[in-house]
Amino acid sequence: MANLPVADRVIELFGRGAHEGLADQLLALATDSDFTSIRVAGCDEDVGVVLECSDSSHVVGSRQAGPLHVLRSLLEHFTQMAETDGGLRSSQFGTKLRIDRPTVVGPVRLSVEFANTSEIQYLAIEKATSNGSQG
Question: Which of 88-92, 105-109, 123-127 has the highest mean predicted lDDT (pLDDT)?
């Protein structure tokens, strides 16, 4: 599974359903790509909700409707993280935050942006670029 692109690994992670540590596992996967996003791509009567995940190199989707509740739980978790860890007052409908993650090569800063409204549900995680400065 480690050889799969990040987007495929994220879809597999969501396919397991809601579980403790999902946010941490997702953030760990995101450190392996410059960009990772998850969004509800649409609703089709024959298919149900389609969850779409992309990384720096490709896009993959899930035709299972189940991951939608997992995504919404995850977005609520990130709202709480923004308030408790970052001291930011955030909206349950979306916000931006920065998270530092330890990796084997040192800390990686991730920029996290999400929205959770009736019109759009998405999560985008971008690895901060390194320009020789820390901040």
Answer: 123-127
